């Protein structure tokens, strides 16, 4: 397995096969199963994914925890990450999508007038190792910690101990941090605790697995970048996917007037989320519709979830002094209109928070805040659960850019299913619609019956 296994070589003779018993001798490397990518690829293909049974996950180092994964959400970044790493890592991928961008570059973005010139040695782009374990977000149980479990000072500092139920956003620059694996390493200060299963509103691993990236991105975009307020208007593109559907509901929870766009088949679904007006982007002039519904003034905010290439066009729907937040990639700014109309631009890249120890702790705050909002009923989840062995099929669906809700991988440990967590499924799924499937696009989803008590 090359680099995926290399971290375990120092511990040869100490490897412990998981055997699904949830434990390994303290300080030992665990050999387990998971999905890996061996080398960079030029375009997405599920054939690049390799499911292996010899992923070596080393013991956690200082400030780290090792998590036994029970659920992992599938995200668009999972099909982009295999393209990072060639030449200059992330910027190589940006160059292919937006023109020459990056260190010492004087070229325009996508033919526009703006330039990104970085001569900073402090903010070098990250390197992305290969091979690596796939997966961006997940949920499970802390199996071991990078400090003495009886060390009260460290336990108080990180707020974690062995046995805690947690959810986290993986650091995609780590070799062994991916969540499409039975075990994953994570930085302790970025891990959020799932509320105790003894509480009235139980959150299971399936729901928790979508909080760090999908819901977390929507939360940060709305309340940190755009800083939305009650009574204002917002247009949200790509409103049927994991991020978009969460954003629609959170915006309504905040008292906003929500305009949204999606494909024809998802219009009714997005309306059910609470959007005040939904445009079928295949049959409507989205900007014209936004202006018509705001008496020609334009909306206060635009949240570009669908496609960064559309961001400049969608920004025409903004009022003077409005704000846009772009999620998928960089926004190719090609007009002085942004300057003249005093428009503000924001981006959300939660993975970037891992790079700075001063910001990494914000990831825990985001995860735990989203779970609290979920318990309050601020948003619902539409989920399809798929066995982890079918992750390749799930990612092929994600790569199309046309999904409804979220796909969550499960059954990481067939002999150790978390039924103790799910047996209270009726309460646990108070705000969730969950369907078990084979990674087929969700169309009509019914609330799943709780599994039998064990």
UniProtKB/TrEMBL annotation:
InterPro entries: ADH-like_N, Chloroplast_QOR, ER, GroES-like_sf, NAD(P)-bd_dom_sf. Residues 1-29, 427-454 are annotated as: Disordered. Pfam families: ADH_N, ADH_zinc_N_2. Residues 45-409 form the Enoyl reductase (ER) domain. Gene3D superfamilies: Medium-chain alcohol dehydrogenases, catalytic domain (3.90.180.10), NAD(P)-binding Rossmann-like Domain (3.40.50.720). One of its GO terms (molecular function) is oxidoreductase activity. Residues 1-10 have a biased composition (Polar residues). This is Enoyl reductase (ER) domain-containing protein. It comes from Trypanosoma cruzi.
């Amino acid at each position: 397995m090359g680099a995926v296994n290399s971290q375990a070589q120092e511990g040869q003779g100490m490897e412990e096969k998981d055997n699904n018993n949830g434990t390994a001798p303290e300080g030992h490397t665990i050999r387990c199963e998971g999905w890996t990518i061996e080398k960079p690829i030029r375009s997405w293909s599920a054939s690049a994914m390799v499911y292996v049974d010899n992923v070596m996950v080393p013991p956690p180092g200082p400030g780290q925890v090792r998590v036994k994964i029970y659920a992992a959400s599938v995200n668009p970044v999972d099909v982009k990450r295999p393209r990072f790493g060639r030449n200059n890592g992330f910027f190589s991928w940006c160059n292919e999508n937006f023109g020459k961008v990056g260190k010492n570059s004087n070229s325009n973005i996508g033919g526009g007038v703006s330039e990104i010139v970085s001569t900073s040695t402090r903010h070098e782009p990250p390197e992305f190792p290969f091979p690596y374990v796939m997966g961006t977000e997940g949920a499970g149980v802390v199996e071991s910690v990078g400090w003495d479990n009886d060390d009260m000072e460290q336990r108080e500092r990180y707020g974690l101990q062995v046995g805690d139920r947690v959810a986290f956003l993986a650091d995609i620059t780590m070799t062994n941090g991916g969540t499409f694996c039975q075990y994953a390493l994570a930085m302790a200060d970025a891990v959020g605790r799932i509320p105790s299963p003894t509480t009235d509103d139980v959150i299971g691993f399936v729901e928790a697995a979508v909080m760090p990236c999908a819901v977390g991105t929507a939360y940060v975009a709305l309340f940190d970048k755009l800083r939305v307020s009650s009574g204002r208007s917002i247009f949200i593109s790509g409103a049927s996917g994991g991020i978009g559907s969460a954003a629609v509901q959170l915006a309504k929870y905040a008292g906003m007037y929500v305009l949204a766009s999606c494909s024809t088949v998802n219009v009714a679904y997005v309306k059910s989320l609470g959007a005040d007006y939904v445009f079928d982007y295949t049959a409507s002039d989205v900007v014209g519709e936004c202006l018509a519904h705001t008496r020609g003034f334009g909306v206060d905010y635009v949240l570009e979830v669908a496609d960064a290439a559309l961001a400049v066009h969608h920004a025409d729907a903004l009022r003077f002094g409005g704000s846009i937040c772009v999620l998928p990639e960089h926004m190719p700014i090609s007009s002085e209109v942004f300057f003249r109309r005093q428009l503000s631009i924001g981006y959300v890249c939660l993975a970037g928070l891992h790079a700075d120890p001063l910001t990494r702790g914000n990831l825990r705050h985001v995860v735990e805040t989203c779970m609290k909002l979920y318990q309050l009923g601020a948003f619902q989840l539409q989920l399809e659960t798929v066995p982890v062995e079918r992750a390749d099929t799930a990612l092929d669906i994600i790569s199309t850019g046309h999904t409804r809700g979220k796909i969550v991988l499960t059954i990481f440990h067939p002999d150790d299913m978390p039924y103790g967590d799910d047996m209270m499924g009726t309460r646990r799924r108070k705000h969730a619609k969950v369907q078990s499937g084979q990674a087929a696009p969700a169309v009509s989803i019914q609330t799943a019956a709780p599994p039998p008590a064990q």
